[in-house]
Amino acid sequence: MEQLRRGFARVGYICEENTVLTVYLALVLQKPLLVEGAPGVGKTELGKALAQVLNTELIRLQCYEGLDETKALYEWNYQRQLLRLQIDRSAEVEVAEEDLFSPRYLLERPLLKAIRSDKRPVLLIDEVDKCDPEFEAFLFEVLSDFQVSIPEIGTVTARTVPAVVLTSNSERELSDGLKRRCLYLYLDFPPPEEEIKIIKAKVPGVEERLAWEIARVVEYLRRQEQLRKKPSIAETLDWARALVALKHRSLDGGLVDNTLNLLLKRRQDQLYFRREIGPRGLDKVLRQGRAGGDAGAP
Amino acid sequence: MLPSPREEELFLRQMVAFAGQLRAAGVEVGTAELLDCLQALQHLSLARRDHFKGALGATLAKSARNREIFDLLFERFFDPLQAREQQTKRLEQQEKLIKQLEEAGEALQFKGEPLQLSDDEKIWYASLPEEGKAGLQRFLKATEEGKKVEASFRPLLETVVRGQLRYWRSRADAPAGEGGAGSKLGAPGLRHLDLKDIREADLPAVEELIARLARQVSSQLVRRQRRLSGAGAVDFRRTLRHNLQFGGCLFKIKYRRKQPRRQQLLFLGDVSASMSRYSTMILQFIYGLQTSVKNLELFVFSDNLEHLTPRLRQGGDPGQIVEQLVRRSKTWGGGTNIASALSTLAGEYASLLNMRTTIIVVSDTRTVTLARALEALDRVKTRVKRILWLNPLPFSEWSCYASVKAFAQRVEMWPCHTLAQLEKIVAGRLLQKNVSGKEVGNEQAYCPGR
After folding, report:
1. Do A166 and A262 belong together in one domain?
2. B403-416 average pLDDT score
3. Which chain A residues touch B316 with a CB distance below 8 Å?
4. CATH assignment at residue A20
5. Min CA distance, A39 vs chain B (Å)?
6. Among candidate residues A51, A44, A41, the one with its CA nearest the CA of residue A11
7. In 10 A of CB A7, how many CB atoms?
8. Structural domain boundaries of chain B?
């Protein structure tokens, strides 16, 4: 587990102890890991970071409505098969059916690719809540046995059990069957001290003071129940990069107000901010944080 | 040092007992989860409490809602000191409650007999300010000493006392309501709380929850409609173009996609005094479904009907608009006349009623001129696809009201007083699935006419 913790730190994925623990358990128990949480808390990033830590290939399956087996598992390469038929016909050679349905003519999609990998890959099944329930049922069959049946070839069993990370934005409740096969991790927004570390790791050139102020403002905004879309980590980082690019070394309410579009992306949320908090409100928050000796306060 | 077999046995029993507690609290923990959990613990040192908790959480609680329940139960189960403190607090609260009930029973009497009030009402009385209690006592005394006071006055008196208690309670709820029973509840708690018991302090969280539930149900509806719409006729143009790559050999047939036939929803919410809270919240939920329905028309009624849709089209935050609209509505908080509302709907808004329209009515069925209301309902029913009636009255009380029986014989009626029930009913019924009584809170739908 210590190795995993160090690995995440090495690749710049700052996370809490519980995240490391759950990923570790998923790896040793060889179980898929289901990660849920608000958009932008770093669910997909966890899969990418894990691939870097394990120094292995990341195979990504992006789920969407209408996704089916042919796009997720395998498909026959019809064009190639047809070409072969045409060539053989003009050469007056009879082609055997089993030749046409051999692995040469198989188009591997992410699931099959993960199963047939020689080195244990990380299979990232992103936004699994967006796929149809039928596909979800098919998915948990694959994930329980790590083998698939191709009628023309036979059963393909995984050479190594892939490390599977499934992410969900909770757009719909996932089936009990899928959940039963997975370990579960809920990612929440990080506390300010963690967020400062993330900002410093991901935004080169950001000063200590600015990182603290950004984390403090974002944390304050996330606490506002009235905001419909709370700023995510990705938005925080974009904002920090923008402030560094504009050569700012510290924050004040006016600057937040001017760059609000990067942080709050709903008109109603922006109006709420200007009406209820405003630049002065934020100045007060920053002053209080400094006076109160918050974690990492400059 | 390895644990002895006896210690292992005890530990196992404790884990099984914990899983049992989770199940009792509604978390779906099966044997498979428990086995995973025990397997996970073998890879960890049990000396670290955070690791122990993390492993249990990852294997036993697999949704955000279950995670909240898990966190609560874990502390209670594995921290005996805290559990004991909580138990002491609970016992103290129970004793206080019993005392309050006794006090209210003694104080609220008419001609030496206690009034027939529910335990909730007695507790409200006990928590009244002194002026409130004194006022009620004065009223009861004055009635008792009045001329020609008969025993038959009792039901009337009880109704008046209940009304007074509600008034005081609504006053107590009006300010932020900090520290109130509902104010600390998380989303899972709010989903199962009776809508009328939601405090002002919880309203923003409830609105957020309503919007989220509506989004979820809405996306389910769209998916279902797409699936049902299936493939249409062969699209020759696209088929030929696609198959040119195979030398003109018709390898893959392309079909036209049928346009999904979206439902038309018409919401009819009773905003009389007792129903306003339910109607407002259910209306917000239904408004959130607009992306998945073709036409959404919103009406509120009490003594007459008011069309809200035109004002909603002006834009802005739906939650606030609905709240303002309902409060400004001319019919807000009046008496209930279902007959008049339905007749106006059938007359002035006849164009909105067709065989693709589903009407969702939110009302406790209590109305003036019941016979006329039933006739009007029969007339409307023949002109629409279906009528779904959501009744916030607890199912156990339905048999007490002739109006409930009469309406339920004509339309599909469901008990609906929590957001969890609302979500299940709307998703289930609009998706044409059967929602069992168990699913909507151990209460069967009362549809004797079906």
Report:
1. no
2. 88
3. 268
4. 3.40.50.300
5. 13
6. A51
7. 18
8. 5-78, 105-171, 210-229+262-433, 232-261
Q: In chain A, count H helices and then E strands.
A: 15, 9
Q: How far apart are CA B160 and CA A50, in angstroms?
A: 67
Q: For residue B51, list chain A residues with Cβ-Cβ distance below 8 A.
A: 21
Residues A282 and A216 in one domain: yes
Which of A37-51, A61-75, B87-101, B119-133 has the largest mean confidence?
A37-51
Question: Do A202 and A273 belong together in one domain?
Answer: yes
Q: Which of B38, B63, B224, B253 to mutate to test the interface with A (most CBs of A within 10 A)?
A: B63
pLDDT, tens digit (0-9, with 9 covering 90-100), for B250-274: 777 888 776 656 667 888 888 776 7
What does pTM read for this prediction? Answer: 0.61
**Are A59 and A119 in the same domain?**
yes
The predicted-structure confidence for B139-172, as pLDDT tens digits, reads as follows 777 777 776 666 667 777 777 777 777 666 655 5
Residue A57: which domain range? 2-70+109-186
Q: CB atoms < 10 A from the CB of A153, how many?
A: 14
In a domain, residue A298? The reply is no
Binary contact (A29, B43; C-beta < 8 A): yes
Does residue A89 register a pLDDT over 60? yes
Last residue within a domain, chosen from A85, A107, A129: A107
Closest approach of B211 to chain A, Cα-based (Å): 9
* A18/B54 touch (CB, cutoff 8 Å), yes or no: yes
Contact B393, B422 (CB under 8 A): no
* CB proximity A171 to B under 8 Å: yes
Quick check: A25 contacting B, CB < 8 Å?
yes
Phi-psi bin for B411: left (phi > 0), alpha (psi -120 to 50), beta? beta
Among candidates A208, A181, A245, which has minimal Cα distance to A30? A181
Q: Which residues of B touch A (CB under 8 A)?
A: 28, 30, 32-33, 36, 39-40, 43-44, 50-51, 54-55, 57-59, 61-64, 67, 204-205, 208, 211, 215-216, 219-220, 223, 226-227, 245-247, 249, 251, 316-317
Q: Which of residues 118-137 of A touch B (CB under 8 A)?
A: 132
- CATH node for B210-229+262-433: 3.40.50.410
Rounded distance, CA B133 to CA A10, Å? 67
* CA of B101 vs chain A CAs: smallest distance (Å): 37
ipTM: 0.76
